[in-house]
Amino acid sequence: MASNRKRVLHTDTMGEAGLKLFRARDDIEAIPFPNLISAADYQKLLSSYEQVNGVALGGTRFGKEEIARAKGLQVCARIGVGYDAVDVPALSAIKVPLMVAGTANSPSVAEQAVHFMMALAKRGVLFHDMVREGRWAADRMKRLPVDLFGKTLLIVGFGRIGTRTAKRCLALEMNVQVYDPYVKPEVIRAAGCTPVANLNDALADCDFLTIHCPKTPESVNLIDAPQLARMKPTAFLINTARGGIVNEKALHAALTANKLSGAGLDVFEVEPTPKENALLHLPNVISAPHMAGVTAESVERMAEMTARNILSAIDGKPIRENVINQEIFR
């Protein structure tokens, strides 16, 4: 390898659109690693190279140990938008940008959130089983579906995904409220939504709650037993953001006590969540294996954006709107 080539380690699940951009550069050596690599093996891999200029991460943890072993690191990129497994302060301390895939997967996550709302409200799993098991005539009027039309949706987090979810739900003629203390009320109103300043008060009014905020120390257990107790027993909860924002034990208690009508969960506190997770055995819970942002199309969009992020940083001109730790520019 020529000494002036830059080395990028990327997860082996990275889409072809991103790999093509790496291959088009003679000064880049792109090396795959297993997406489910253990922390010990990943640290060993990083240490095996004289330099690792860039990393493209799936769900791989990237903390102080990994940072210390990635000699010559210029950029850390997530093939996605969540970054709770990355030690951002440690990167900032050495002036290395953490970059995310911008809006690449936001349409996909927004669609999944709406899918969960639809599937829960329209009793999708219940009715499918009813037809398949021959209970059509006897049971179909026992638990009626409900409309999204005219219902109140509360969106927590009005970033790339929350704003797209709002657009889709406004088109369904829902009343959309938004809780996001970091977004100005006039921005929320301009999008056709109603800003709410108090989360607890808004929870009491909503028919659907969908979570679209990042997982931070501030948002861990943001929806816990006291918050769930304020919600209507007819309401539905959707989480396509991160496990741990909703307290799973409290959610299970609310669902089993008929204090909440149902939940759609793409994310869990432990992932992969064990099959013994009590939430998975409730008839009013539908789930997915953290796939909201992963579609045939979004995989390619995220890969392309991730590659562009890495190359921009290596070239000394990082795409600033995709940098999480903006403090490195100060």
Core attributes:
five-stranded parallel sheet, Rossmann fold, 15% strand, 2 domains, 330 residues, alpha/beta
Topology summary:
Blueprint: E1 6-11, H1 16-23, E2 28-33, H2 39-47, E3 54-57, H3 64-69, E4 75-78, H4 88-93, E5 98-99, H5 106-121, H6 124-132, H7 136-139, E6 152-156, H8 160-171, E7 175-179, H9 185-190, E8 194-195, H10 199-205, E9 208-211, H11 225-230, E10 236-239, H12 248-256, E11 262-265, E12 285-287, H13 296-314
Parallel strand pairs: 1-2, 1-3, 3-4, 4-5, 6-7, 6-9, 7-8, 9-10, 10-11, 11-12
Helix pairs in contact: 1-13, 5-8
What would you say this structure looks like, in words?
- This protein is α/β, with parallel strands linked by helices.
- The chain has two domains: 6-104 and 296-329, NAD(P)-binding Rossmann-like Domain (Rossmann fold, 3-Layer(aba) Sandwich); 106-287, Rossmann fold (3-Layer(aba) Sandwich), CATH 3.40.50.720.
- Helices cover 35% and strands 15% of the residues.
- The protein contains 13 helices and twelve strands.
- It has helices spanning 16-23, 39-47, 64-69, 88-93, 106-121, 124-132, 136-139, 160-171, 185-190, 199-205, 225-230, 248-256, 296-314, and strands at residues 6-11, 28-33, 54-57, 75-78, 98-99, 152-156, 175-179, 194-195, 208-211, 236-239, 262-265, 285-287.
- The strands form two sheets. The protein has a seven-stranded parallel sheet, sandwiched between helices. Strands 2-1-3-4-5 form a five-stranded parallel sheet.
- β4, α4 and β5 (98-99) form a beta-alpha-beta unit.
- The two termini are 35 Å apart.
